[in-house]
Amino acid sequence: MRSSLLAAGLLSLAATPTAPAGLRFSVTFPASRSSAALDGRLLILISADSSAEPRFQVSDVVTSAQVYGMDVEGWKAGVAVSVAVSGVFGYPIRDIADLPKGRYRVQALLNRYETFHRSDGHTVKLPPDKGEGQQWSRKPGNLYSKPQWLTLDPAKGGTFALTLDQEIPPTAPTADTKYVKHVTITSDRLTAFWGRPITLTAHILLPQGYESHPNARYPLVINHGHFPADFGGFRPEPADTTQPCEYSERFHLDCYNRIQQQYAHQFYEEWTGPDFPRVLLVELAHPTPFYDDSYAVNSANNGPYGDAIMRELIPVHERCGAQITAKGGRSLGW
What we know:
By secondary structure, this protein is α+β, with helices and mostly antiparallel strands. It has five helices and 17 strands. It has two domains: 166 residues, no CATH class; 144 residues, no CATH class.
């Protein structure tokens, strides 16, 4: 594969004595984290901001942490991988030579890949979703190092050791509430395509009065978006005005967190009001090994997500109705 050749080339370059001098990071992981050899994308994260770990500071804004990456394959515990950041492209500063000399918090992270033997004959190495919506900084099972302060001088260079001795824990199941229920199924179609179990999730917002109308039938409204960890934009509690205001660089709004809560609570009041249409509102989560969203269509590279959603997840009550129940044990029965 192209990625394999790239990884081999980068590893060879890092290990070559004649490679250009500059900043390097020597990264290892202990056998206690994995006795098996690992594949994945190894990231070096650099930030002068101590308000959060560098892995949480990578974004599409100018204040993003600095990041470099390389592919690794067959990486064994205790074997050091040398990551040369001088002379290679980085983000958001393209050349490490332009990074001002100073003290930075530095962290390494391995976004672990899995080998998929797909039914179309292709074998690919990709990061499987682990219930976090393809967020490598929070993906369960990914290894990372504790941030450490280092004095970096691109002109002087130097080699710094980092150890991936931390592991991101599994995500906690999302709890049901009076109004919001959750269901996850394993898709037969997607499992056959990817060669390993693939799940789909639905977050279901129940209409007001659902429990008191056991024989009612409701229209189904489906909401697509990027990966939702839970049903978004619905908040029975009033906005928390004691929270510190957070500025949204994306929308250029101050107190964006409070604004979101205000509108979420407004939706709750409207949803439970006497004149709001009574429907089942379903928000789908269907991340792929490529991204946090499949766009709900069949595709040659992603597999039959459209069929899986329409033919397996939507009529799930007919296939496994006992898995989706409101309080009292009644099937949602859409």
